[in-house]
Write a structure and sequence with these properties.
single chain; eight-stranded parallel beta sheet; 13 helices; 42% helix; globular; binds NADP nicotinamide-adenine-dinucleotide phosphate
Length: 311
């Protein structure tokens, strides 16, 4: 852990892996109700806990609050400690700073807890300035409603503004949650990842298996359903060589799956992946990314083939 990590945010840097909970309640992208029901979400949560995963990422907008409510139910059913991260959505009609505290209180009610471990601004487009939002975030920390604060989908300049605005209030910027996978390495190439590491900001990697593509179960003949299928139409024909290499590397590690290779690669890059899981089987497979390590040579080979796809 580097010296720039503040004592308040140290716990986040000790977490290698989390569970994403967008799938719990979302019908539009994730077909909640059809491909998975509450029992399946519960199994994903329980299996993850059994595997030692202690960090769950949700948001007020996921399933219009259903994800937070389900998480609240599951938390009540366990006596294990769980770190909870949720997010504020900067809707255009949220014009006052006090909207943030109101939204956070409603999230806490849905989850049924008194404070979260990480409260994040979901995305940077807001009619309130970054400085105003960060003032509200600092107040949330002062009120004891969140232990730490983070941002999500912020580019480097937006993140630095948030970092400085918080620093004026003596609050560290704990995390930036952005998309990162073997099929999307923008943050590695544009310097955001390095800047986070330099400043002690935890980089939380969302869509780390590229919404299912890196499991190898989708192909041109069998694209993912709905919106995902349209979004990945151009990428699917190109990913064969990467999937082949991932299979070979997984075999070198006693038959690790492609999803496990994809997630281990995120960890080796110094990020915390938070794969979403619809059920216990997916959660169990994803948790198998822990407890072993890709070699530096394997990471380099994966980088090379991944580069050849995006070039
Ligand atoms: N901050 C943001 O703006 C933002 C944006 C996106 C996501 N997130 C967070 O990041 C989390 C993860 O990202 P994501 O959900 O976009 O993508 P992801 O984790 O890359 O992909 C999750 C999807 O892949 C499939 N899958 C997962 N594990 C699998 C396995 N072992 N075998 C086969 N299929 C598997 C499942 O869908 P199918 O079974 O339907 O294929 C699952 O819903 C979310 O839950 C959310 O918490 C945040």
């Amino acid at each position: 852990m580097n010296d720039t990590v503040s004592s308040e945010t140290r716990f986040l840097h000790a977490v290698d892996f989390g569970l994403g909970a967008w799938q719990w309640g979302d019908r539009l992208i994730w077909q909640y109700g059809q491909t998975h029901k509450d029992e399946d979400c519960r199994a994903a949560f329980e299996v993850s806990l059994e595997a030692g995963i202690r960090f769950v990422d949700t948001a007020e907008v996921y399933g219009s609050g259903r994800s937070e409510r389900l998480l609240g139910q599951f938390l009540q059913e366990t006596d294990q400690p769980v770190l909870v991260a949720t997010k504020y959505f900067p809707y255009p009609w949220r014009l006052m700073k006090k909207a943030l505290m109101q939204a956070l209180r409603r999230s806490l009610e849905r989850i049924g807890i008194e404070s979260v471990d990480l409260y994040q601004i979901h995305q940077p487009y807001s009619l309130l300035s970054i400085e105003n939002l960060m003032e509200a975030m600092a107040e949330a920390v002062a009120e004891g409603l969140t232990r730490t604060v983070g941002v999500s989908n912020y580019d480097q300049s937006q993140m630095l503004r948030a970092y400085s605005a918080l620093a004026r209030k003596d609050v560290p910027l704990a995390a930036n949650q952005v998309t990162f996978s073997l099929l999307n390495r923008e943050i590695e190439k544009n310097g955001l990842l390095a800047r986070c590491q330099e400043l002690g900001i935890r980089l939380i990697a969302y869509s780390p298996i590229e919404k299912g593509l890196l499991t190898g179960k989708y192909s041109v003949e069998n694209p993912p359903p709905g919106v995902r299928g349209r979004r990945y139409g151009d990428l699917l024909p190109k990913i064969g060589p990467l999937l082949k290499l991932m299979t070979e590397i997984g075999q070198e590690h006693g038959g690790r799956s492609k999803a496990q290779v994809a997630l281990n690669w995120c960890i080796q890059k110094g990020t915390m992946p938070i794969p979403g899981a619809k059920n216990g089987e997916q959660a169990e497979e994803n948790a198998g990314a822990l407890g072993w390590k890709l070699t530096e040579e394997e990471v380099a080979k994966l980088d090379e083939v991944s580069d050849s796809i995006s070039d």
